[in-house]
């Protein structure tokens, strides 16, 4: 049973920035939204100085009315714009959008599209803009259906020192006769040497269960990647010294993970900032069957629902998605001595239901640094809204 909590905040504000009550060093707001559910934000600094945010919105993840939403904080403004819907496929749930300002000035919007709660049916689509997102070209398919399952992505594109583009993905493998639950998911990178016209896929070895690969170019000849764990134990890390052509097997870090998304960014001073939930399966009192166990089934889909088997490692759903924490590493992600919570609460996520306002998770964070050094963070709040926060690195206690 869910615990009684105080009433949630009023999410119906106008997106105007304001200091956090009692903490003038923190500026925040809820980004305007037009849907019952809002989830999975990604922030991007645009070449004209605007900050853009994309997320998915609709009634509930996995339902076909889920689509990509877009808002911007214009340079010099203190208010986020009203959202604009940028996708509308009545047959697929369109999720996990990200923005990529390409070196030639084109802004790419990239997102996934799946049938109902079946992530093993996901394809990846894109649109392009030549005016920083004020207008958009037609919807294209970037990565179509694959024989072994679905292609999923969540984290930003990286432009490598040789000009290659690297897009981290994970593969949602299909298990014959069973619905997707995530047990067999593994990570890979898509690499393009011709500005996105063709792509090569490189799998990360021994990465089963490690997804949401967040890749950082450390500017020292190496790449580092951080992963969400399907097993809800720890954040994992792996490294590459050859521009992403080979990777070490993911290893556990000291940071816990609850089978929810993390995101990291390399800061201008060489430090790494990460936003994540400071929780793991050890904090769980309940367990869900799957991520989509509370949406109606697909007509004609007679595949078996997944059932965890005691003693067999399987994807752990339902770990509380709280607190939301910002951590800083000064040694390439090997230790994380500076941590401070952005939000605290019970993080109840045994349902994705937003209509009945049952879910109380803080999740799917995104983080970026602007040229003035400020850290910009956004995350899901109760699956009803996207909260935006701006702080300095020193807010965590890290030395300037």
From TrEMBL:
Enzyme's top EC category: hydrolase
Any GO MF annotation of the entry: exo-alpha-sialidase activity
Sialidase domain boundaries: 49-377
The enzyme's E.C. designation: 3.2.1.18
Family annotation (Pfam families): BNR_2
Alphabetically ordered keywords of this record: Glycosidase, Hydrolase
Compositionally skewed regions (Pro residues) per UniProt: 1-10
Region (Disordered): 1-23
Official protein name in the record: Exo-alpha-sialidase
Source lineage: Bacteria, Pseudomonadati, Pseudomonadota, Alphaproteobacteria, Acetobacterales
